[in-house]
Amino acid sequence: MSHPSWVMISMLTELLTSQSGGMGKPSGECANDTEIISALPSQPYNTHYLPSHPTHVRVDMWVQAVTAVSELTQDFEIDLYINEFWEDPNMAFDYMNPCRHNISFDNDMLTKLWIPNTCFINSKTAKIHESPFKNVFLMVFSNGTLWTNYRMKLTGPCDMHLEKFPFDKQRCSLTFES
């Protein structure tokens, strides 16, 4: 595929896969995905507790399309792709000498993990794309880095001033925070 997100996924996977650890198994033996998944998280885990240390979350987003602008309701619709990266030491598995240095999960795994509460606080509506299932990707890397990728459709406000039509300029904004 030539879609930019797949290029980014491939590059990121290659970059993080090259970081190998491995002290848990004798050399030559590696832990398969089943062994790793059964050992995660490495400590008792409560998704409702915030991490005990500051957590840096990197967020990348790009606009796929502005699908509508309405003068009547003074809002706009937008499709976004969002990537979030953060570290969770309880999800590290490099000590197990993994055969692969990343494992992909579906949306169900996210309910079992602490995830950053990032949101658009002024959106009128926000929905994660489904086709036919919720379109959320989760990858866990052996060093404990977590990566989510998802597509959203948002409706946001526009403070429109139409007095100078057709030479008017409108400002439509979304406020993102965690």
TrEMBL record:
<dbReference type="GO" id="GO:0005230">
    <property type="term" value="F:extracellular ligand-gated monoatomic ion channel activity"/>
</dbReference>
<dbReference type="InterPro" id="IPR018000">
    <property type="entry name" value="Neurotransmitter_ion_chnl_CS"/>
</dbReference>
<feature type="domain" description="Neurotransmitter-gated ion-channel ligand-binding">
    <location>
        <begin position="35"/>
        <end position="178"/>
    </location>
</feature>
<dbReference type="GO" id="GO:0016020">
    <property type="term" value="C:membrane"/>
</dbReference>
<feature type="signal peptide">
    <location>
        <begin position="1"/>
        <end position="18"/>
    </location>
</feature>
<dbReference type="Pfam" id="PF02931">
    <property type="entry name" value="Neur_chan_LBD"/>
</dbReference>
<keyword id="KW-0406">Ion transport</keyword>
<keyword id="KW-0407">Ion channel</keyword>
<dbReference type="InterPro" id="IPR036734">
    <property type="entry name" value="Neur_chan_lig-bd_sf"/>
</dbReference>
<comment type="similarity">
    <text>Belongs to the ligand-gated ion channel (TC 1.A.9) family.</text>
</comment>
<dbReference type="GO" id="GO:0004888">
    <property type="term" value="F:transmembrane signaling receptor activity"/>
</dbReference>
<dbReference type="InterPro" id="IPR006202">
    <property type="entry name" value="Neur_chan_lig-bd"/>
</dbReference>
<keyword id="KW-0813">Transport</keyword>
<dbReference type="InterPro" id="IPR006201">
    <property type="entry name" value="Neur_channel"/>
</dbReference>
<keyword id="KW-0472">Membrane</keyword>
<keyword id="KW-0732">Signal</keyword>
<protein>
    <recommendedName>
        <fullName>Neurotransmitter-gated ion-channel ligand-binding domain-containing protein</fullName>
    </recommendedName>
</protein>
